[in-house]
Write a structure and sequence with these properties.
Largest sheet: 8 strands, mixed
Helix content: 25-40%
Number of strands: 15
Radius of gyration: 23 Å
Order of helices and strands: HEHEHHEEHEHHHHEEEEEEHEHEHEEH
Shape: globular
Oligomer: single chain
């Protein structure tokens, strides 16, 4: 009987589709390595933990007592999910896609007419995470018909950086308080950072000469931000450093960014808002910190396509070195356009861990790019069965892979 069962299993056909009934944002996210998960709800315990976290941060004189914001609630709910599902025991980082907004418990639908999706990369502090997130977000918006996109980006550095910058900013505005309108003086009492987004003409002129947080970054933060910008330049993604772009300073760290539609009449309303965060997990009761970076997209769907399919990847992309990482996302996009899915470990550095993942997934082919291949615009295509391999030019890669 057992023998018959084995024969049945052996002869059983494996569905070539890993996912069916997808829409465009989900399909793009899968190509870039994200995992589709059911959307968690914000529970009462999340609200309490977020409030407790905010209160503890407000005791610091450099952090004002401000109402708990949605972005913090979402992160607390995600971290709870991370702990409940024991995600810490899985290979890091985790790349997660949520096709609906993260809402409070009991609310089933968002009242917003726009589509809301979220991307999160949890468990890594590396700059490649921002690059993956921004590139994926850009491609989702492009597929939805947004063509003239612009990125505003900034870095808040680490917690010490934010504290020093807040003190310098406060000193600057106190020195020039006579030039501030009455409304802006009230903003200053509430949160000094609010003055950086104030639209009052006098305040806008005054902030142009204000201190810039970029001048307060530590060397590690400076290197991290430089790497993020290098990724964007390699991907031909135009960006503008916005010195006045700041986030919730109780948890935001390092990179912040907004993606705008340059053709939109609502120029102040971004299509996507992204932030790196740290120091939340331990303060809400988790054993260790979980660094992460996430983006929330809010847009009107222009290109509504449903019932898309995502084939089971037969390729695993392996990279070695910073130059290879720089080019890796370009290769993903080339293969995505050719409808060739692949797994990857772009956020990892060690060859052994990447090869182990490919073997555990029983992937038949690996693409390998080291420093030499990155300089020559080639990749090594290796058959995992007989270890034979061939060097292929990137421009010829889709055609070559389709023949395998």
């Amino acid at each position: 009987m057992a023998t018959k069962e084995k024969v049945k299993m052996k002869n059983k056909k494996v569905d070539p589709c890993l996912f069916k009934n997808l829409d465009l944002p989900a399909e793009v996210a899968l190509y870039y390595g994200f995992t589709i998960l059911d959307v968690p709800q914000i529970k009462k315990e999340d609200v309490k933990k977020a409030k407790s976290f905010q209160d503890s941060e407000s005791k610091n004189k450099d952090v004002p007592d401000v109402p708990t914001k949605t972005s913090l609630l979402e992160r607390v709910a995600l971290l709870r999910l991370y702990g409940e599902k024991n995600f810490q025991n899985l290979p890091q980082p985790l790349m997660l896609y949520f096709g609906k907004p993260i809402l409070p418990e009991g609310i089933k639908k968002s009242s917003a007419k726009e589509r809301v999706v979220s991307l999160e990369i949890m468990g890594t502090a590396k700059s490649i995470a921002e690059a993956i997130l921004i590139k994926t977000t850009m491609e989702i918006l492009k597929e939805e018909g947004y063509e003239n996109l612009s990125i505003q980006i900034n870095s808040m550095g680490e917690k010490d950086t934010v504290a020093r910058f807040a003190r310098e900013l406060t000193a600057y505005y106190r020195k020039n308080i006579d030039e501030l309108p009455a409304h802006c003086r009230q903003l200053m009492k509430k949160d000094i950072f609010d003055l950086l987004s104030c639209k009052n003409e006098k305040c806008r002129i005054l902030k142009e000469s204000s201190p810039k947080i970029m001048n307060f970054l530590s060397e590690p933060s400076r290197v991290h931000f430089k790497e993020v910008l290098e990724y964007l330049e390699m991907l031909d993604i135009p960006y503008e450093i916005n010195h006045f772009l700041v986030g919730n300073r109780s948890f935001a760290s390092q990179t912040l960014f907004e993606i705008h539609d340059a053709e939109s009449k609502e120029v102040c309303v971004p299509l996507a808002v992204g932030v790196r965060y740290a120091s939340i997990a331990k303060k809400i009761g988790m054993k260790r910190d979980v660094p992460g970076v996430g983006v929330r997209l809010t847009f009107k769907e222009k290109n509504v396509q449903k019932n898309l399919k995502f084939l089971r990847p037969k390729i695993y992309f392996i990279q070695l070195g910073f130059e290879a990482k720089l080019k890796s996302l370009k290769i993903i996009e080339i293969l995505r356009q050719a409808k060739i899915p692949m797994h990857h470990g772009i956020s990892r550095d060690k060859l052994v861990s990447q090869l182990s993942s490919a073997e555990n997934m029983r992937i038949p082919y690996t693409l390998i790019m080291g420093q030499k291949e990155a300089l020559e615009d080639t990749v090594i295509v290796r058959c995992m069965t007989d270890r034979s391999q061939e060097s292929i030019k990137i421009e010829h890669l889709p055609k070559y892979l389709k023949k395998l």
